[in-house]
Each structure stands twice: as C-alpha cells, then as structure tokens.
Design brief:
Elements: H1 3-27, H2 38-64, H3 67-72, H4 75-98, H5 105-113, H6 119-129, H7 142-186, H8 197-200, H9 203-230, H10 233-248, H11 251-264, H12 266-272, H13 280-290, H14 293-311, H15 316-343, H16 351-360, H17 368-375, H18 380-409
Helix pairs in contact: 1-6, 1-14, 1-18, 2-7, 2-11, 2-13, 2-14, 2-17, 4-5, 4-7, 4-15, 5-7, 5-15, 6-7, 7-11, 7-16, 7-17, 11-12, 14-18, 15-16, 15-18, 16-18
Subcellular location: Endoplasmic reticulum membrane
GO biological process, one term: auxin-activated signaling pathway
GO molecular function, one term: transmembrane transporter activity
Length: 410
C-alpha cells in the first residue's frame, strides 16, 4: 500500500471530525443566532451522556462480541488497560513537570491516557483490508474480522473511559468548584458605606483579609485530614466501594456491562440480534440512537472551541507534551508490547489482530472526554484546544505509524 493511499485512509475519519467540529463552531457564533449556545450545548450533552452514548456501547457489544471472542481476544482488554496505565503515568509526569492549573490536571492525564477507541478504529482497521498491497488483504474474512476487532475495542474503551476517565474528570470538577469557593473567600470586599476612598486603598486590610482566608482554608484542610485519620479501615473500605459503585452507575458503564451479558449469552443475543430475532426492533432502535453519539459530541466540542480560542488557559508546552505522549512515546511502547506478547504466545496468529492492538496506542484523545468536561463544567475550552491540535496532527501520525506497523507485520 502506497504512502498517499494509506494517508487518505488514515486521514478520512480525522477530517470528518474536523469538518463537523467546524460546523459546531459556526453554529455557536452570532451568524447562526447562537443556535448552539452554552445552554444548548449543555442540554445536548446530557442527552449524549444518558441516551446516545449508552446506546452506542450496548449496540456495539451485543452485536459483535461472543463468549468465544471474549476468551480468544483476552489480550485486548489487557492491551487497553496498559494504554490507560502507561498514558496515565506519562500524563502525571507531564502535570508534575509543567504544573498547569490544578483543575486541569485530570483533563491532561485523561488526554494522555484515553484514546479514541471507537469511530477511528471502526473506519481505519476494516479499511486497511480493502487496499491493494495490504498484508491483510489475502484473508477473505479480513473486513468482518477488522470490524469485530474495532467494535470490541470500542466497547472495551467505553468501559475504561466511563470508569477511569470519568473519575478523573469528575474529580477535576470537584477540585475546580473548591478552588472557586476558596477564591470567593479571598475576595472579601469592604462593604462599609461610611468608608472613604482612602480606606479602600489600604493594603493592611487586604493583607489581614488574605491572612484570615488562608487560616480558614488551612483549618479546613487540617480538620478534614484529622477526620480522615480517625476513620477505621472498614469505613475507608466502605467509602472506596461506594465510590466504585457510583462510577459504575454511569449510564454508559451500565450499558457496557449489559452489552457484555447479552453478547456472551446466546439465548439473550438471539432475542434481539439477527433477521429472525423476535425483538430485533429493539436492537435497531438502540443502534439508531447510538448513531447520534459521535456527531453530537463533535458539534459540542466545536461549539466550545469558539470560546476556547479566546479564553483557554492552557500553556503551549502542555499541548506539545500531550501530542508527544500520544504520537511518539505511546506508539513506540505499543510496538514493544505487541511484539513481546506475540513472542510469548499470548496473541492469536491473525496479523490484523496485532495491527489493531498497535493502532490502539496511536489514537488521538477520546471524544467522550469532551462530554465529561461539559457534564462537570470544567476545562471545556481547554479540552477543545487539545482536540484541535491532536486531531490536526492525527492524520499524519496515524499514517506514518500505520505504515511502520504494516512493515513490521509483513
């Protein structure tokens, strides 16, 4: 497969994301009477979170995954788990070195660890089979196998993203609101109606107020630490379990669990999947709803971008670091992981499966991060800026690394 042919294959899904994002940005301007204003984006985002995203995850899992697939493809969840683990560690290093604003730390770690394991995989992996010169083109089952690998990847990615990444962004939202509350304490205006102009300029009063606010904040932290120390082991364990259950109750996570159950249970799957399924209309309806996930998410991100270009507080070095982690460090590590797993006999013989594992290390940040940022009202503009640059570079990065992967596997 030639470089330019591969470039077209790899760049098409990325260009689709960028074009829809531009439309979203245009819809959020005055030229469209703010058709996609902040309120509209917030309400649309709630629909994505509660209806569209769960439908997409369930439809993908229930239709394409069987119990045999789950057993034979057991290394794929391990591979995705390694991506989240290694990407999370690298993101944490970026945060510690560059020291962004505290409420953006979770967003940066999420951008480094959570890749777009959904629509890009669904387009790129099966498309490779149809190209002349592809090392996988001789296999007559290549396209269907590629679609199954990509669908399984999307379902697993949804499970990881809506648990681990969801927790990161949710924690960032809590931290952001805590910082806003602390800032409001520091801003103690002089409301004395008898105060003169000179009284407002007295620096001593300001210093005293700042000191009082600092003492108050410090006392709050100390009291919370003491309360934490007094908690017994069982109370802490109960708190951890409660937090885990709360994260698992997110609608997309519930959909992933139910989808796995339907996919792995033949009699349940036969109820809704297939031409002869008595309840196939349910699966068709869910699939139709799931199709709204990606365009809606991209429109929201494009709308946030119009504000983000003016008000985002993200250092250029942070963007460079995220790009370097996603398109340089992770792909190189991915090659080592897949080659090592193959030598130890942990992978199926199908080279397309190994190619899919490598591509998972090379993807831009997941679109769901933008949904979560909008949901918890934290880092929305910064998230849009990260998307803009990572998706612009993704076309070239995916092309170069895909060429390297196919050269290794051939």
């Amino acid at each position: 497969m030639g470089f330019w042919t591969l470039f077209q294959v790899a760049s098409m899904p990325v260009l689709e994301v960028l074009l829809i994002g531009v439309l979203g940005a245009f819809m959020a301007t005055d030229y469209c009477s703010l058709l996609l204003n902040a309120d509209a984006r917030r309400y649309l985002n709630k629909i994505v979170f509660v209806v569209f995203a769960p439908s997409l995850v369930f439809a993908s899992l229930a239709k394409t995954v069987t119990l045999e697939d789950i057993i034979s493809w057991w290394f794929m969840p391990v591979n995705i788990g390694l991506i989240f683990l290694i990407g999370g560690i690298l993101g944490w290093i970026v945060v510690k070195i560059l020291k962004p604003e505290p409420h953006l730390e979770g967003l940066i770690i999420a951008a480094c660890s959570a890749g777009n394991l959904g629509n890009l995989m669904l387009i790129v992996v099966p498309a490779i089979c149809d190209e002349d010169g592809s090392p996988f083109a001789d296999n007559k089952f290549c396209s269907s196998a590629g679609l199954s690998y990509a669908s399984f990847s999307m379902a697993l990615g949804g499970f990881f993203i809506w648990s681990y990444t969801y927790y990161l962004i949710k924690t960032s939202g809590i931290r952001y609101r805590a910082l806003q509350a602390a800032e409001s304490i520091l801003k103690l205006p002089n409301t004395d109606p008898d105060a003169t102009g000179e009284a407002h300029l007295l620096k001593t009063d300001d210093l005293e107020k700042a000191k009082v606010a600092d003492e108050y904040t410090g006392n709050q932290v100390l009291s919370s630490e003491r309360a934490e120390e007094k908690r017994t082991f069982w109370e802490k364990l109960k708190g951890v379990i409660h937090q885990l259950l709360e994260e698992l109750m997110a609608p997309p996570t519930i959909a992933a669990i139910v989808g796995f159950i339907f996919g792995a249970t033949p009699w349940l799957k036969n109820l809704i999947i297939g031409d002869d399924a008595p309840l196939r209309v349910i699966q068709d309806s869910i699939t139709l709803l799931g199709a709204g996930t990606l365009p809606s998410s991209i429109l929201i991100i494009g709308g946030n971008l119009t504000k983000g270009l003016r008000s985002a507080r993200l250092k250029p070095l942070v963007i460079i670091a995220v790009v370097f982690v996603r398109y340089m460090i992770l792909p190189a590590i991915g090659i080592g992981v897949v080659i090592a797993a193959g030598k130890f006999g942990l992978l199926p013989s199908d080279p397309l499966f190994r190619y899919a594992l490598m591509v998972q290390f090379t993807l831009p940040p997941a679109m769901s991060i933008g949904t979560m940022a909008q949901l918890f009202d934290v880092g929305q503009e910064e998230c849009s800026i990260i998307y803009l640059w990572t998706y612009l570079i993704a076309a070239l990065a995916l092309t170069v690394w895909s060429t390297i992967y196919m050269w290794i596997l051939s």
